[in-house]
Design brief:
elongated; 1 helix; alpha+beta; 3-stranded antiparallel sheet
């Protein structure tokens, strides 16, 4: 069950409440008994950890072996073509 943060707009009373997702939101302030008790938007209180997920997944492409493999091949081809020689993959046309 998630914990929701509530705050009264009239008196400023704050409280964290453990509720089911299906429960109706609270509206009456336990401090001043007015109906200005509102649910606040808060950040998630958990992080995904373990062998299946990392914080750096799907960022910029550095660090992963799959992301670095194409870059290595592209660097090798670029270095071979910048030598100034002709490409060995393109055969010369013969005149018959």
């Amino acid at each position: 069950m998630p914990i929701y943060a509530y705050r009264c707009e009239t008196c400023g009373f704050s409280k964290d409440v453990l509720q089911k997702v299906s429960d109706a939101p609270l509206t009456e302030c336990p401090s001043c008994a007015k109906s200005t008790f509102k649910k606040q938007v808060t950040a998630a209180g958990f992080q995904l950890k373990g062998t299946g997920w990392y914080v750096t997944d799907f960022r910029g492409g550095s660090g992963g072996s799959a992301a670095s493999a194409p870059a290595t091949g592209a660097t090798t081809e670029k270095a071979a073509s910048s030598d100034g020689g002709s490409s060995p993959a393109a055969p010369a046309a013969s005149a018959t």
